[in-house]
Design goal:
By secondary structure, the protein is α+β, with helices and mostly antiparallel strands. The chain contains two helices and four strands, in the order E-E-E-E-H-H. The protein has one domain. It is elongated, with a radius of gyration of 21 Å.
């Protein structure tokens, strides 16, 4: 995953792959990098390191902080442990929104429905139900 990394604080972490089984909906690869590592005031769980991952793709970008306790890990372990916690976050999110996935038939049905108001001088496509 971190091939070519030169040290524990290297910024280029990995590339993720999104399922591209649905034509026209491919997100492509995400570039995942460490945007920042900071010492912070301890939170309620005594975590005093904030490691922020930056996610970039053609369609979206976002940052996600991971909090760690500096007493539990040394400098060479911080990025590796944060990556593991990041994996856990996405694994949990995947499970929580698994039922959000639409089938192809559901997507086609939704595409047939147009609930936007018509612009003046323009016809609105109606649902074919």
């Amino acid at each position: 995953m971190a091939a070519g990394r030169t040290g524990p604080w290297a910024s280029d972490i990995s590339y993720g792959r999104i399922d591209q089984s649905r034509p026209g909906e491919a997100m492509g690869k995400f570039k995942i990098s460490v945007a920042r590592i900071e010492m912070i005031s301890p939170n309620e769980r005594a975590e005093d390191i904030r490691l922020t991952f930056q996610f970039e793709s053609d369609q979206t970008s976002f940052a996600l902080p991971i909090f760690l306790n500096s007493r539990d890990f040394d400098d060479t372990e911080i990025v590796k442990v944060a990556r593991s916690k990041l994996y856990d976050v996405f694994w949990q999110l995947c499970g929580q929104c698994e039922d959000w996935q639409l089938s192809d038939a559901e997507r086609r049905e939704l595409a047939k429905i147009n609930v936007r108001p018509a612009r003046q001088g323009r016809r609105v496509r109606e649902s074919k139900s």
